[in-house]
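COMPLEX REQUEST
Ligand: (2R)-2,3-dihydroxypropanoic acid
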Amino acid sequence: MNTPERPHILQIGPLLPLLETWLRDRYVVCLLDDAPDPAAFLAEQGARFTGAVTSLFGISAEQIAALPNLRIISNFGVGVDKIPLEVTRARDIAVGNTPDVLNDCVADTAFALLLGVARATPEADRYVRAGRWGQPGQNSFHLGRKVSGARLGIVGLGRIGKTIARRALGFEMDLRYHARHPVADAPWQYESSLVELARWADFLVVITAGGAGTRHLINGPVLDALGPRGFLINVSRGSVVDEQALVRALAEKKIAGAGLDVFENEPRVPAELLTMDNVVLLPHIASGTEETRQAMAQRVIDNLDLFFAERRLVSEAR
Ligand code: DGY
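STATUS: Structure written out below.
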């Protein structure tokens, strides 16, 4: 009896090494980056792939067009803003993502940034390392801002937003949120105007989905409303914040500071931010713990396996 051939999977961009191993154990995997001319490779061999795996690199409409037998895209990550869903819907291609398993770590990172920028811990660390602590002629390290009991505005109250809200309870923070609509089971005060939420908040945490619908949601007027005592924290997508407006607001001290895990053109970070002490910059690591990345890898595999076995997904992005 012939063993049926394993599905061919196109891998777009590097993945967690563990996930690459798991994929190769189950499927015939081809890394697009290995092709000297990826477009020519897809034109020649695209028809053999029924699945694709990607991450923050996404997949373009052109690449999907070159994959006539593509049935599933399994994304390593909850955000699918780099996958053209209008194209996958029209072609009836399933799109899997990795929600829930990363809620805790992304929420933790939001607080790491919030505490980091409010209490200036990265700057204080640099101060100690530079040998400035206790040096004659050095002023003592500047005062930070109190987090416990402060006003937290959350932009986007999905699964991660709610986890951030629950963390905030431990800090006895006063909480309000903005979303397109009030969230049915949310006990916190809804603010229909983002500008008003920013005006009220000491800390504005952005955790809404990326994509065209939220591009530059955080713009000049929102930053003006946040004001010189307010901090912006972004753990969603760089595209949600008008980065030039943010750089201007920070340079002109229109806001107090920012904690950023994501940027508009990753891995490029605006040069101006690199010299500012009131910003904390992370290389898009909100979900980046061993435990969570392994759980995300497992979900990528589970989505593929279930799809090829039963044409279903554990978690489908819509
Ligand atoms: C996600 O899941 O979309 C994260 O941004 C990737 O870590």
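REMARKS: The chain has a mean pLDDT of 97. The domain at 8-99+291-310 is CATH 3.40.50.720 (Rossmann fold).
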